[in-house]
Amino acid sequence: MCARGADQAAGIHIRVWRESHTSAILSAVSPSFAWDPAKDAQNQRKHGVAFVDAQLAFLDPARVIAKDLSHSKGEPRFYCFGETGSGVFTVRFTYRGDVIRIIGAGYWRRGKKIYEAQSQVPR
DSSP code of 80? Predict the structure, then answer.
C-alpha cells in the first residue's frame, strides 16, 4: 500500500510536508496569491477571516505546510499553519502555476496543535 493509502486507512488526513520548494514562498520574488471573491466573502461570514489577511500565515518563518490527503482527487491541496498577529491561521490552498490559490482560512484548533508540534523556530 502506498504511503497515502496507509495514512488514509489509519484515519490520517494531513501529512506535514517539508520540502525545499516550500521555501520559495519566502523567496526574493514575492509570491502571488489568488482567490475567488465570492468564496472569500463566504469565508469571512463563516470563519471571520479575509483571504487578504490569510496571506500573512505564509510570512511566518515557523509556518508548517501540510498536504491534505483527504481531498486532492483532481489537484493537490495543502494547508499552511502560520502565526499572525491575531493567532494561528489554518489556510487551505493549492498551487496554480506560480500562484498560491487560497481556498479557505480560519482559526482551527487542530491546526494550532499541528503548528505548535511541528514549528521549527524556537519561541
Answer: E
Q: Which residue has the cell 498577529?
A: 85
Domains by residue range for the chain, with CATH:
3-118 (3.10.450.530)
Question: Model confidence over 37-48: pLDDT tens digits?
Answer: 999 999 999 999
pTM given for the model: 0.74
User: DSSP alpha helices (H): ranges in 1-123?
Assistant: 3-9, 37-47, 51-54, 109-118
Residue reference for cell 483527504? 70
pLDDT in tens, 15-26: 554 444 444 444
DSSP letter at 3? H
- Indicate if the pLDDT at residue 109 is higher than 60: yes
Query: Nearest Cα to 77, choosing from 94, 58, 57?
Result: 94
